[in-house]
Amino acid sequence: MSTRIILLRAVNVGGTQLPMADLREIATELGATEVQTYIASGNLIADVPGKGADFDRALEQAIEKRYGWFREVISRTPAQVRKALDAHPFEVAEPKYSYVSFLAGKPTAEAIAKAETYDTGDDQWRVIGTELHIRYANGAGRPEMKTDSVMRALKVPGTARNLNTVKKLIELAC
Q1: In this predicted model, what pLDDT tens digit does every residue of 44-92 receive, in sequence order?
Q2: Is 124 helix (H, G, I), strand (E, B) or coil?
Q3: What's the angle, vertex CA 130, arms to CA 28 and CA 119, rounded to 5?
Q4: What is the pLDDT of residues 85-107, one digit of tens each?
Q5: CA angle 42-46-47, nearest 5°?
Q6: CB hemisphere CA count around 172 (13 angstroms)
Q7: For residue 105, how many other CB atoms are within 10 A of its CB?
Q8: Nearest by Cα to 92 from 169, 164, 170, 171
Q9: I need a surface site. Which of 33, 44, 88, 114 has the fewest CB within 10 A?
Q10: Strands of the chain, DSSP E
Q11: Cα 116 to the chain's mean position, in Å?
């Protein structure tokens, strides 16, 4: 068993509802222990059996079987999440304006170069390993950059959490 911070992409937005009680139940059915969720946006902390990636795929399949829709599951160890937080390359004037998008893999240099061609105004982003770091000048609710376009150019799915949430997930996992 290893402790994982498990992040689901795009749940409880746009009509895709996943009650956190159901998420905890599914994770437990898959053999996870010490299962807890944080806010209703697909954040799960648990001790999982086997390899983290294997548990992620099993969770994706179980959710799809139960609900009929697919969402990526991306997990990291608490140490990996802490390392991503520590690597955040931008000044943090307001933690809710700064995000880490945890990616399912590492984008290629070509994909990053394509994403760099998009105008982002005063918003900033940078890929560091398997994370996309973002700092919105005026908050995520009023972005100047087209985050979806950048993500499509990177060709790697990911799910973003603001720095407040990232810090809380680390706290809950330790």
Answers
A1: 999 999 999 999 999 999 999 999 999 999 999 999 999 999 999 999 9
A2: strand
A3: 125
A4: 999 999 998 888 999 999 999 99
A5: 155
A6: 20
A7: 12
A8: 164
A9: 33
A10: 2-8, 33-37, 43-48, 73-76, 98-103, 124-128, 131-135, 158-162
A11: 21
